[in-house]
Design a protein that fits this description.
Length: 158
């Protein structure tokens, strides 16, 4: 069995002078560094005293699931003779708080809108979403139920 190792460096930038002396006075901002890639600025979600203009862990979690599904799907289509010419997803998820300071995502729903080339098999394109889900590394690492509501459009003949 082959394996791939990944490393991420997280730096907290939220010490505003007194560290975490008080829950309401420390900053939630952080940076994500991955060698050889652009730095990403993040914060907690505004519901948890973070900055609305920065990516939060919940955004990144949902983006990881949706992008992994997309990349798995595109690979399957390329190998299976389905020519995808456009792909977008309006993914959504529901985070439920447990009342003790924790919580978990209750569900995630992907809404991929896929356009395939004229003459390609729309039924096959639709079925490949299930295989993509089964092969997605991120989905396979999650305990949250991940649903798919895909739509397939066929490109108009030129």
């Amino acid at each position: 069995m082959r394996s791939h190792d990944y490393r991420t460096h997280i730096l907290w930038d939220g010490n505003l002078g007194d560290g975490t002396a008080s829950y309401v006075t420390y900053g939630r901002q952080y940076r994500v560094r991955v060698a050889g890639k652009p730095e990403l600025s993040g914060s907690a979600n505004p519901a948890f005293r973070g900055e609305a203009g920065k990516h939060d862990p919940e955004d990144l979690f949902l983006a990881a699931i949706a992008s992994c599904h997309m990349l798995s799907y595109l690979a399957l289509c390329a190998r299976g003779g389905v020519r995808v010419v456009a792909y977008e997803d309006q993914a959504s998820g529901t985070l439920v708080l447990d009342g003790s300071g924790g919580g978990r995502f209750e569900q995630v729903t992907l809404h991929p809108a896929v356009t395939i080339a004229a003459g390609d098999d729309a039924e096959r394109a639709a079925k490949l979403h299930q295989t993509a889900h089964e092969q997605c590394f991120i989905a396979n690492s999650c305990s949250v139920p991940i649903h798919h509501q895909a739509t397939i459009h066929v490109e108009a003949n030129a």
